[in-house]
Amino acid sequence: MQTGKLSEKFPILAHQGQAQDMPWMELALQQARLAAQAGEVPIGAAVVIDGKAVADAHNAPVLLNDACAHAEVQAIRQACQAIGNYRLGAQATLYVTLQPCLMCIGAILHARIGRVVVGCAQSRYNGDLKQSLSVFEQAQAWHPCAFETGCMAQESEELLGSFFKARRKQREQAVADLASLLHLPNANKQTIEELSQLGFNTPHDFLQLGLEQASQVLAERSNRLKAGRHTQQAAILASLCDYFNGEPVRSWKQYL
User: Is the pTM of this model over 0.85?
Assistant: First the structure.
């Protein structure tokens, strides 16, 4: 059954549970589990050509200090090296446990992969797949690529959910152990004033609201500060959003 469609070039279909795809998606899931063990967001990918896996990889941006080291990009790089050609071709299928982001879609299309099988489609980073593909629909250069979503979706979603649940629990304990809000990453006295205006005066205030909801409040305030050109505090609040979401926190200057 078709779930959405941009054109004949980039159809988006619901995966029909084809048995031949299950071992390859399981391979991608194995890679996602390795990512979780390494402290990376658990996303895995595999490239299969003519019934043979030529590459499998997982998310590694933290480990490699490489913003581009997404599972899809890692697997595509391996596959290109394995076959000696940066064009993997229409016969190649990429299996990935989470819907590709815009960057990874670009890599997929540059490699001329003919088919992408996706585990779960939800992601706060990735947006709507149809909308992402519309960016590429405007150009004539891209070769066709079919996307099928929902292959072993439950397993993929549970893996991601468990990972972030554990991260949030760890971060909740870290927040509970704070002696004061000044011990938050990147926080300064002006940050404390900003937090107070939002109703956050103690670590308990964040826990009472819930870290996920608190992160959303801080993100909205950060966007308003950024629009008003209060860039430093906007960046600090953005860094706190990562902190409350259980993600690695960088220097506030890297959020500018």
Answer: no
